[in-house]
Write a structure and sequence with these properties.
This protein is α+β, with helices and mostly antiparallel strands and 99 residues long. Strands 3-2-1-6-5-4 form a six-stranded mixed beta sheet, with helices on one face. The protein is globular and about 30 Å long. The two termini are 23 Å apart.
């Protein structure tokens, strides 16, 4: 797996490698792709994960996921963790491997 210095660098490289859809985290699903559909945890796989820790600002703590849906759509999901993380379902916590 590759290593990146910044979130921007990771997102740019993943796009070049075909992860072109943008996904947004919802409470119990991710939403996005070309048709803005909602996908439950069993409807997508996480292929790569990159964690970035904010050196001075906890708001800069992010995880970038490279995702492939069951129909083959590839895209990225960026999720903040720590103090400012969103509330998500237990199923999404297990899928994303976050606390």
């Amino acid at each position: 797996m590759k290593s990146y210095e910044t979130v921007t660098e990771a997102l740019q490289d993943l796009r070049q490698r075909g992860y072109t859809a943008d996904f947004i985290l919802q409470f119990d699903c991710i939403q996005g792709g070309g048709d803005n559909r909602k996908l439950k945890p069993e409807e997508f796989d996480i292929e790569e994960v990159y964690r970035f820790e904010g050196e001075t600002d906890p708001g800069d703590e992010n995880i970038v996921y490279a995702i492939r849906t069951l129909d083959g759509t590839r895209g990225t999901l960026m999720h903040g963790y720590g103090v400012y993380s969103e509330d998500i379902s237990d199923d999404m916590v297990r899928k994303l491997g976050t606390k």
